[in-house]
Amino acid sequence: EAEVGRVDVLVNNAGTAESAPFDRTTDALWDRMLAVNVTGAFALCRALIPKMIARGFGRVVNVASTAGLAGCAYSTAYCASKHAMVGMTRAIALEIARTPVTINCVCPGWANTRMADEAIARIAEKTGRGEDAARRALEAMSPQGRMVEPEEVALVVAMLCSDEARSIHGQAIPVDGGQVMR
């Protein structure tokens, strides 16, 4: 906080996604997924939540993924990192439950982002399908038949940061058009 000032709201939204069959997942890929997708968030939570508690207010939203709620083939390291984010959120939530600080996860499904565009390009390259076909396949994973828009995820994050969300704590909230129901 000495560098950035008072922090009342922390949104951990750094992320990267790479894929490989589990038996070809290198130690470097594994370490990179965990470092970017969960270790940085843990370090920020550890540094900032005690100060939020001392001041009497705080909201933490960790952006995980539906991959943190279910497994995904060819994404062992990514899924492990997102499950770790959900588990970390729930563990911290239990420790701080009687404080004025809340912590939750938002778990987007496939969203119209650069990360999805990169995944679509990889799928097209690895399968020989065109990018349009790869995009349609990802869209079909949602019962709504579409990708989530970043603004939809942002709306849930903003709601969780509000004073009115003080009873929402330790939750992993999918924003996925119903994808995890399948």
Automatic annotation (TrEMBL):
InterPro entries reported for this sequence: NAD(P)-bd_dom_sf, Sc_DH/Rdtase_CS, SDR, SDR_fam
Coiled coil: none
Gene Ontology process terms (BP): monocarboxylic acid metabolic process
PANTHER family reported in the protein's UniProt record: 3-OXOACYL-(ACYL-CARRIER-PROTEIN) REDUCTASE, 3-OXOACYL-[ACYL-CARRIER-PROTEIN] REDUCTASE FABG
Family: Belongs to the short-chain dehydrogenases/reductases (SDR) family.
Protein's name according to its UniProt entry: 3-hydroxyacyl-CoA dehydrogenase
